[in-house]
Write a structure and sequence with these properties.
Number of strands: 11
CATH superfamily: tt1808, chain A
CATH topology: tt1808, chain A
Structural class: alpha+beta
Radius of gyration: 16 Å
Distance between the termini: 49 Å
Order of helices and strands: HEEHEEEEHEEEEE
Shape: globular
CATH architecture: Alpha-Beta Complex
Largest sheet: 7 strands, mixed
Length: 192
């Protein structure tokens, strides 16, 4: 038997998708950096932040929609599977897609931090790298621990080359192809 190394995935993407299909409804699974990860179920404030972002995007960009909890094919060669808290796409862009969508139409991915111990690594490191490698132009991280919003943009070589971080309450520019200014003042009411 060949010993497993750090760079080998725990299983194939196909095996992961089969496992995920049979997981209980109370568990969301992701496949990040070749490892199965359990994504925590969102609490009320988490869900309200995503709903607020949906409404905000709809008001400022009625030609797009922020889909909540959308499965995306991420990382290099689409070998990862992430369930984004939100993915912004043009209206109708997910038509005909299965549970895991290619990211070619994605304008922005959004994550809202959870309170589990793995959130820091997953949301601040693993997911930005996976989204950048998949070519998603913008990644927005709403960090409830630090009370900040970070906009990652300009993916190149599997990494975002620009990063802007502002505290809750500040105005924050979300660049091309989203092109909106996010007023983060309302996020203060969702801090636990």
């Amino acid at each position: 038997m060949t010993p497993r190394t750090e760079n080998q995935p725990q299983m194939s993407v196909e095996d992961f998708e089969e496992l995920e299909r049979h997981a209980p409804e109370t568990v969301w699974l992701e496949f990040i950096n070749g490892k199965v990860v359990v994504k925590p179920m969102p609490d009320g404030n988490h869900s309200e932040i995503v709903a607020w972002l949906q409404k905000y995007c709809m008001q400022h960009r009625p030609d797009v929609w922020l889909h909540a909890e959308r499965g995306l094919k991420t990382e290099r060669y689409r070998k990862g599977r992430a369930r984004a808290d939100g993915v912004l796409v043009p209206w109708g862009a997910l038509k005909g897609h299965g549970e895991w969508s290619d990211t070619d139409k994605a304008l922005m991915a959004v994550e809202v931090t959870s309170w589990d111990t793995d959130a820091a690594q997953r949301d601040r490191v693993d997911k930005p790298d996976g989204y950048a490698a998949a070519g998603i132009p913008v990644y927005v991280l709403v960090d409830r621990v630090d009370c900040t919003v970070t906009v990652f943009s300009h993916p190149e070589g599997g990494r975002y080359r620009q990063q802007v971080n502002k505290p809750f309450g500040a105005a924050l520019e979300i660049p091309d192809p989203v092109n909106i200014t996010l007023d983060t003042e309302p996020l203060k009411e969702f801090v636990d």
